[in-house]
Amino acid sequence: MRTNRDFSPLFRSSIGFERMLNALEAAGRAETIDNWPPYDIVKTGENDYRIAMAVAGFSQDELAITQEQNLLMVSGQKANGEDVQYLHRGIAGRSFQRRFELADHVKVVDAGLANGLLTIDLKHEIPEEMKPRQIEIQTSHAMPKAELKQIEAETKAA
Questions:
Q1: CB under 8 Å to 56, separation ≥6 — which residues?
Q2: Is 116 left (phi over 0), alpha (psi -120 to 50) or beta?
Q3: Is the confidence at residue 1, as pLDDT, over 50?
Q4: CA 80, chain centre distance (Å)
Q5: pTM of the model
Q6: How far apart are alpha carbons 56 and 116 in whole angstroms?
Q7: CA distance 143 to 62
Q8: Please, which contacts does 35-39 make with residues 24 or more away whose CB atoms are closer than 8 Å?
Q9: Is the pLDDT of residue 125 over 90?
């Protein structure tokens, strides 16, 4: 049993985490989990990832990959032109749409279809201005000491 969590206190006390908190809320609202087609997500390098999705029976023309700002959408639509009488149908040929939430600055590098596996290569490219940089500390002349002014006179104990 899933309970709804209230993230509003976090919205009030955090700055810049709206996307993460919205993703947590959306994950809590997920009603049905469709686990077809099966897929793997593999980290292939420090900033490189690969999604491998089993799409047996789909051709390259029946698959579509779309990347919006922080969303990768993979969909498959079988052509309806077949007039085949199946005695047994074990290979799923239903249409699908799979969404992947992407972090900022993750880009699709390559995609390929071989042996019923759709592979999508991703790279997390941090812009140069967002990378850590070393700040050189300059030596400067000693600042003149300011004269200290006495604000209150000393009080004598009675």
A1: 91, 116
A2: left
A3: no
A4: 34
A5: 0.63
A6: 4
A7: 72
A8: 36/92, 36/94, 36/96, 37/76, 37/92, 37/96, 37/98, 39/98
A9: no
